[in-house]
Each structure stands twice: as C-alpha cells, then as structure tokens.
Amino acid sequence: MIDNKINVWFESLKSIWLNKTPNEIESLVANKFYWYENPFQPPINTQEELLKEWQSILNHKSLSIDYKIISAQNNVGIAIAESTFTLIDTEVRIEMKGIWFVILDKEGKCTEFRQWFNLKQSN
Asked: What are phi and psi of 59, to 5 degrees?
C-alpha cells in the first residue's frame, strides 16, 4: 500500500510545476533539507536557493509530467518520472525520464530529495 503522504507530496510537486507557481516549492520542504536537482552537483539546502532554482519553470511551455510510485515505506518514496516541455526562450524541446526519491518528516515535508534522469533535447 502506498503511503498517502508520499503521494500527496509527489502530486504537490507536479502541481507546482504544471501551474508554474515556483514560490510554492518552499511549502514542500522542511526547515533543514537537502535537494539534489542533479546528482553531479552539490545539494540545495536553503529555501532561497531552492526558490531561485525553481524560477526556471517559468520558462517552460507545453508541459507534461507523469510519475508512478514504485516504492513508499516509512516516509521514503521512489517514483519513476517523465516530463516533457519546451523552453520558451529557445524553443528547445526537453524530454526527461528518471527517478524521484524523497524522504519526508512526520509533517510530510521533504528532508531529502534526489532525482536522476536521462535528458533528451531536440529543436
């Protein structure tokens, strides 16, 4: 059975992205958190940095996001995720397929988020 907190959190992440409301991303994280937007970069660990990173969604159009939770237990969730969008400023089409990993605290706030993905770009 899927932990409902995990599903609510992933749905909220998806909704923020689809609705292009980057300021709401702060509501998903705990006071102390680690957010790995990319496995090859250091984590984001302040709300200011996270909000700055999420401003990029304002440059997305024709956005599609889907995910399937493959594991959820003890406030840890793993999902297969796919997203496609076009960058408004360059018209480059982006396809991302990968994994989302989240650890939530007792209140359902993220203490750790990691994503791994393959990225395909086309004009």
From this structure: -95, 10
Dump pLDDT digits (tens) for 7-40.
999 999 999 999 999 999 999 999 999 999 988 9
Find, among 96, 34, 7, the residue nearest to 60 by Cα.
96
Report the candidate in 100, 98, 101 with the shortest Cα–Cα distance to residue 76.
Answer: 101
Res 95 pLDDT > 80: yes
Please give the pLDDT value at position 1.
45
For the chain, helix, strand, coil in percent to 5 are: 30, 50, 25
The length of the chain is: 123
CA-closest candidate to residue 94, choices 115, 119, 118, 116: 119
Which domains, and CATH codes, for the chain? 4-122 (3.10.450.50)
Cα separation, 69 vs 46, whole angstroms: 26
Distance (Å) of CA 1 to CA 5, 9, 41, 77: 12, 16, 33, 12
DSSP assignments along 28-61, one per residue = GEEEEEEEESSTTSPPB-SHHHHHHHHGGGGGEE
